[in-house]
Every structure is written in structure tokens, then in C-alpha cells.
Amino acid sequence: MVTLTAIVAPMGRQLYRQFAKHARGQRWIPVRRCNLSACSSKYVLSQVHPMWQGPLAVPGGDRQSPINIAVRKSVFDPQLKPLTFQYDPRTCQQIWNNGYSFLVEYDDTTDKSTLSGGPLEDRYRLCQFHFHWGESNAWGSEHTVDRRVFPAELHLVHWNADKYSLFEEAVMEENGLAVIGVFLKVGKRHEGLQKLVDALPTVRHKDSVVEFTKFDPACLLPTNTENYWTYAGSLTTPPLTESVSWIVMKQPIEVSHDQLAVFRSLLFTSAEEEVQKSMVNNFRVQQPLRGRTVRSSFTPFLQEAPQDSQTPSAGGPQAGHVH
Ligand SMILES: [Zn+2]
């Protein structure tokens, strides 16, 4: 069978060589350093990512993700309820390096680990979580808040088990998925994350899978889950279907530089590949809002910390600042 990989892999290697050459010559300017919407159309960072080659790179309709969240344009919705996380660590099964990120996968054949409340009308089952990160701490998140970029972003992926019977079915449908987004900022070591970080060297290469059990995903949520933004969007990886109710937490979690360094030690490539490629910058470029409303569960005007101050906000000292 002639696989797409057989065609794409050599292309990928070629692109990687070009990319490496550019990076060495200091001519490569990271897309996240400047105006995102302008850069995303000009620069082809997406082309060096294994997942963004070929026809799948063409985005779909009017509700694509990720986006920039403009705090002052978000609309406070007092109807938004608190979220209910009901996670059973015993449903955690394995870690899989899928060649773009690492997925911590959960048994979703029962309602043992679910998310409900907030903007959601139904109950959604947790199937996996994963992260997106940059090659340095200066960028890496997919969403941004007032154009501020975080070094990484966690996505907890859930599917609507009240309306659908399988993830594969839900992924194609409106209200099929609910994804929680949590920003990561650099600070002190995250004790809950460390168990996962310790296991990562065993899934260094693409397609490696390792058993991983009894991990409570709730430990990766910020202490304040009451403050969030929500909007109608899409998956940020193929198939890019517009089936996602996004719930992006206002408060980031703190992880150490060393923990992020372990993320960056993973590889996009499998053990057999000639040129090994670090798993970094595995985020999608930002997409136009196209008239969508971002709702907030909180009133931004009362709680917003002054710009560039050291005053701790709900997100802790220097929340969201990138140095
Ligand atoms: Zn994601």
C-alpha cells in the first residue's frame, strides 16, 4: 500500500533541513513574536509541522481555533454556571506520542470521568489530554489573551456522551466536543505534573506508547476554575472539525522550566527516521474570529490587574507575562 507517509515523510525531512538552515542563520523569526494574524498569513511555520502538510492544512469554515481572546471584547454572561469536573484517576490508561504531541489517554467507555456544567448542556466524557508548547518560553500556547502568549497550553478533550456513542461520531458534530484549555507559565515546579514528566522519556519517539495509570487530571486544573472564557470553535489539529465548545481558563498553572525542557526533549520522529526532529512549536497558527462572541464567566472590568504591574491577579504574580 502506498501510504501518505511515504510521500509526506521525505517532504518533511526536506522542509526540516530548510528550517534548520534558516534557524542557524538567525533568519527565522518566530511567528508568535509579532502581530499574529498578520504573521500567520505571511510565514509558513505550519509547513514544518508534520501534521500540516498536504490538503489538511486548508482550514474549514467560520469557527476555527485557536483565537486571540480580547478581554475587553469578551461578554460577561451571568447565565454561565460553574463547571463540574468528575474525574476518576483509575480511568487513566496510557501515554502515546502521536508524532505531534503526547496524549494521555483515558478509558471513555463509561461515565467515570466527565465534565458538565459551565456552558454545556450535556455530560462530556474525558478521552485524553495533551499539550502544545514552544521551543522557548517566549511562545507555545495556541490561544492568547490580549495577544499575550504563554509557553504552553494544556487541552483536556471530552466528548458528548449524552448525544453520541463514540468519540469518532461526536468529533464530526456540533456540540460534539468540549475542550478545557489551561495556560502554563514558567515558575515553580508543578508537583502533580511531575509523575507525567518522569514517564515522558519512555515515549520519546513517535508512535511509542507506554502504560500510565492512576493519574488524576484534576491536578492540572488551576485553583480557580470559576473564571473562564468560552466560545464556539474547532479542533486545532486535523480533522479541524467545528465541533468544539472551548472553555479556556483565566488562571494559568505554574510549571518549571525543567519540566518544559522534558516536553522539548520528545521527538516528532520515529526511531527509524534518519533525521531526528525535536517536538517543539506544535501549535496551530491563530484563526480569524469571524464575528464570534467570546463569553466570560466573570466580569473582566472588576478583576483585571493593571497592565505591566507586578500586582498578583487571579493568575498569580505576572500572570501571562512573557519575558
Ligand atoms: Zn490541543
What would the keywords be for this entry?
single chain, 323 residues, alpha+beta, Carbonic Anhydrase II, two-stranded parallel sheet, binds zinc ion
How is this structure best summarized?
This protein has 323 residues and is α+β, with helices and mostly antiparallel strands.
What does this structure look like?
The chain is globular. The protein has a single domain (58-298), classed as Carbonic Anhydrase II (Roll), CATH 3.10.200. Helices cover 16% and strands 23% of the residues. With 323 residues, it is of the alpha+beta class. It contains 6 helices and 15 strands. The strands form 2 sheets. Strands 2, 3, 4, 5, 6, 7, 9, 10, 11, 12, 13, 14 and 15 form a 13-stranded mixed sheet that branches. The site of zinc ion has 4 residues, from β7. Residues 130, 132, 155, 236 line the site of zinc ion (ZN). Its cofactor is Zn(2+). It is an enzyme of class 4 (lyase).
CATH architecture classification: Roll
The biggest beta sheet, please? 13 strands, mixed
Low-pLDDT residue intervals, each spanning 5 or more residues: 1-50, 53-58, 308-323
> Are any ligands bound, and if so which?
zinc ion
Q: What is the residue-mean pLDDT, rounded to a whole number?
A: 82
| Share of β-strand residues | 15-25%
CATH superfamily: Alpha carbonic anhydrase
Assign the CATH class.
Answer: Alpha Beta
Shape: globular
Count of alpha/pi helices: 6
Radius of gyration: 19 Å
Number of domains in the coordinates? 1
Structural class: alpha+beta
> Helicity level, as a percent range?
10-25%
